[in-house]
UniProtKB/TrEMBL annotation:
CDD domains: PhnB_like (cd06588). It comes from the Bacteria. This is PhnB protein. Residues 7-133 form the PhnB-like domain. InterPro entries: Glyas_Bleomycin-R_OHBP_Dase (IPR029068), PhnB-like (IPR028973). Pfam families: 3-dmu-9_3-mt.
């Protein structure tokens, strides 16, 4: 799978509704996963288990839009509700991008094994742009 660059939107408790709205606008297939499905508690509040951990809308024309709910204990302010997402299975390429992006920036979540089996990390580059990097795991 080639490396993809996509926008990733963050919401406060409305990711499902927003992504369903965008599906109505753009058409396509929408996949949703909750925090509870992966045993990844969004916070200490069990009510957050049904919140969207990851949503991906793939349109008939090939556009991809991703989104998720932001846990209650995490800041979310207008203008900061997006990240750029790099994903694919070329580990060497993606780790190279990660290393370059964190140079002079800040690691928010280290690039490490994630509950869904991939390697995932979050950072903010030296210009203040938030990034997520997801390296697909080997097929079982």
């Amino acid at each position: 799978m080639p490396t993809q660059l996509n926008a990733y939107l963050s919401f406060r408790d409305t990711a499902r509704q927003a992504m369903e709205f965008y599906q109505g606008v753009f058409g396509g297939e929408l996949g949703l996963s909750t925090f509870g499905e992966f045993g990844a508690a969004a916070s200490d509040d069990p009510a957050e288990a049904d919140k969207v951990m990851h949503a991906q809308l793939t349109t008939p024309s090939g556009m991809v839009l991703m989104g998720a709910d932001t846990p209650a204990g995490t800041d979310l302010a207008p203008g900061s509700n997006f990240s750029m997402s790099l994903s694919g299975d070329d580990e060497r390429e993606l780790r190279g991008y990660w290393d370059a992006l964190v140079e002079g920036g800040q690691v928010v979540e280290p690039l490490a094994q994630a509950p869904w089996g991939d390697h995932f990390g979050m950072c903010v580059d030296r210009f203040g742009t938030p990034w997520m990097v997801n390296i697909a795991g080997s097929p079982a």
